[in-house]
Amino acid sequence: MLASLFFVEQKQGWSGIMPKMPTQYQIREPLRRSIEFYLKLDIMERARRRSELQQRLSVLRAEYASLRGALDAAAQVSNARVVGTSEFGTPTFYRYPLFGADSDGVAAGSVVTVFNRDRWESLEDTLDHLQSEIQEAGTLRRPQLTESESFTLSSALREARSRLRGITMELQSLDDSANMMDMQRGVLEKRRRLLEQELRRYKDISALESMGAQFSARAIAHHDCPTCQQSLNGTESLSGAPVLSTIESAALVAQQLETVSNVIGDASASARANESARSSLEQESGEIRARIRALQADLEAEAPNVSIERLQSKLIAEARFRELVRLRDSAQVVVNDLLAAQTSAILLKSELDSLGDDEFSPTDDSKLTRWQNEIQEFLGAFGFLVFAPREITIDPQTMRPAHGDSDLGFQGSASDGLKLRWAYLLSLVQTSAAVGGCHPGLLLLDGPRMYDVEPAAMRSFLRSCSQLRGEGGRAQVILTLSEDPAVIREWLSNCAYSIVDIPDRLLV
Q: Is the pLDDT assigned to residue 150 strictly greater than 50?
């Protein structure tokens, strides 16, 4: 890619005014990137840094998604959920710390919530309640049941059975809600697929329009849908009302697609919370059934010296306590990693925003102006005729010679196109040396005299090559010519040069 601006082979190298750039390396705008490198433009360094920052943000996004997935999975195993998170890259993500953390971080116990007795509460509160239950269980031995103790156990048994019936009703309600959400998500997913298909069609039409196609404009003019070609008369707008262009329609569809995707995301989060609540209720249902059996055993005095109910409650509470402690400890590590990922992302995003838009700096503008002036001077020296040399400019977006608002091609003779190619190559070497660029100061030109260029132009070209300035002094230009050495000596009188004369023809 870079070599095409200092080496030109004879067979096809002079077939156009611009060098042929390789396209197999998936490099965007290879000519522009090469010029930015040779002239050492600030925009190239900003583009490189921007690409590096975007890549690092992509890595952080993947890491963040992996951590979020691990945290959600760990919480779901224990019938819990995570609150206070935000999607990577959203304005909220960059503006507010995750989980409402302060400078000292945040405790995982306040991030993870557990569904306990018809409500969501923090993991720390649940652990406190479980610890209190374990302590209240106290001693497991008791004397023979008194009448008041029997009444208390009977009341506890009734409450447990009532709670079990309530859980059964809640589970039925959650199942109905889950079925309703599944139906709604199915409708939304279908709508999203239709919007994605419609957006692709609008983008295809926009691409065709950019290449000069007129189908879309005619379809809109006849009040027909540009995607399905059905009439829009009397459907969405009054007669004579303004009609959105293809680009505006695509933008509107993209906004609708974003809205539907956000709604689907919220519905999915609600479905996960619903599933966690259902799992918690099922777990509580199993615990209550075990407690009912223990209360019945106590009332029937199957173990007069041991409270089965207290034993059962204590075992369940201790098992749940150990499970949630493990969840809290593992979640704390992931929460700390998530906060670190957010901090890194904010710093990268801040630096990315500080780079500004993809625009040339004042220094870049001065370098491009100098290069443009060099091209114009060379064109004047070579006898460029198709346009006045001062009318030739460099398009800063494509780095190609331009005349007015259009790229400059072979509007004139082939020799004028060759002169423009000479001026492009020589001016780049000289400008790079003047502005401290990265051009090697070397040109390897095989057979630069093509299309029967007039001798005066060839003489001026050779003298310009001998006087070309490169980095650190004079540039090195190596040419292969079929001219008579005596003619070359005459053209290059008083110039620094060297001729290697090969009298016989060579087949390489």
A: yes
